[in-house]
Amino acid sequence: MLRSSISAEKQEVVEDATQKKASQGEDYFADFNFSELHIDIKSMLKNGVHFGHQKARRNPKMNEYIFGTRNGINIIDLEKTVEKLEEAMNFAKKIVSEGQQILFIGTKKQARRLVESAARKCQMPFVVERWLGGTFTNFKVISERARYLREGQEKMKKGEYSKYTKFEQMKIAEELEKLETKMGGIKNMTKFPGAIFVTGVIEDNLAIQEARIKRIPIIALADTNVDPTIIDYPVPANEDAVSSLRLMIAYITKAVLDGKAAQGNMSGTASTAPESSEDIIPKQLDEAALKEYKGKFKELKSQEAEK
User: Fold this and answer.
1) Measured between alpha carbons, how far is 26 from 33 in angstroms, rounded to an integer?
2) pTM given for the model
3) Spatial contact of 182 and 171, defined as CB atoms under 8 Å apart
4) Integer Cα distance of 106 and 114 in angstroms
5) Domain boundary assignment for the chain
6) Of the CATH numbers 3.40.190.10, 3.20.20.140, 3.40.50.10300, 3.40.50.10490, which one belongs to the domain with range 78-136+192-269?
7) Are strands 126-127 and 195-198 parallel, antiparallel or unpaired?
8) How far apart are CA 211 and CA 206, in angstroms?
9) Contact at 8 Å (CB) between 48 and 10?
10) pLDDT in tens, 90-132
11) Torsion over CA: 17, 20, 26, 31 (sign)
12) Helix or strand or coil: residue 170?
């Protein structure tokens, strides 16, 4: 009679999030109030951030971030998630405050609209379609194609193609549309970003490899089946459920927005002293939520020991 309660709960989280997604449309973060967003374990629990993959799919290098296993499902240690999230947010804010960009990457189906919406909200480049091989390692060629796209779209707006036949205009429009789909999110990225933010380590592994070759820092959500050692700032989290993705992407987006605000303040007041790491993102953990979290899984360790 006992079924996998964790699996059922995870499925419920995914279904609820999918329904909300349909009702809210594609632009998730257009009206999102980031000023009220704080790092909170209770919110992470509610959105299923702690659910990992099945025990059989666990990557041994993720062991330090796993609280335990229940009904064959790995449970992520949210205290570790909070710790690593704060590090990632501090770094993201610092990078952006220095005038650099962060490239948002999310090519898995459930992450695409979230990533694009978040990137547009904070005016950062993004990749939500297939990663173009050589985006970093062959940046010169990619930049030339991006410039061709920008100039072509500008000419189209000004009507400079009106001198061509309708058939030629149609072919040019089709070419520009295909380029926009493939690289529209990076067409204004004229130099290497200061960092990349990845929502799917396995799905976007090529982007991570190129970033490592070019020594570009990597921030990424790390589920229990990935290798966190290839990531500079891994954030242990469920990267499959839409609700979990939305919350974690929102945290990084908030850090980017805070960095842009800090950049504006620094340009206006050059004599202002830099903030300490403690001041950038203060800990705002709900002690009651933390107690609830510990109590909810207090038997996991003992169950593991018995096995």
Assistant:
1) 17
2) 0.80
3) no
4) 8
5) 78-136+192-269, 137-190
6) 3.40.50.10490
7) unpaired
8) 9
9) yes
10) 999 999 999 999 999 999 999 999 999 999 999 999 999 999 9
11) negative
12) helix
